[in-house]
Amino acid sequence: MGSFEDIYQIVAQIPEGKVMSYGQISKMLNGRISAQLVGWAMRKAPMGLPCHRVLFADGSLCHEVVFGGKDIQKEMLEQEGVFFKEVYQVDMEKSQV
After folding, report:
1. Rounded to 5 degrees, what are φ and ψ at 7?
2. Pick from 41, 45, 49, 80: CA 20 to 30 A from residue 4's CA?
3. Angle CA(35)–CA(46)–CA(30) in degrees, nearest 5?
4. Domain boundary assignment for the chain
5. Topology classification of domain 4-95
6. Using one digit for the tens of pLDDT, what is the confidence trace for 43-87?
7. What is the DSSP string of 44-63?
């Protein structure tokens, strides 16, 4: 069984300017943790973890309640050089780990 700590170890290794999807992290843990549970872990993550780099599979940013809203998450990602193809959608082909 995977744990939040397993998720956090993966997220901590996402380099600046790159992103991963919730499902991608789930697959890295051999499906022991669902993509939905990865999302829940991001809400409970310790300070300093680059949770803003974890997105939906289509590159959509998180829901409004996280990071103070999509505009803040977008700004954080743009400052790191992440590519966007729509206003709130990352270009996963260019930016995914």
Report:
1. -65, -45
2. 80
3. 30
4. 4-95
5. Arc Repressor Mutant, subunit A (1.10.10)
6. 889 999 999 999 999 999 987 777 778 899 999 999 999 999 999
7. TPPTT--GGGEE-TTSBPPP
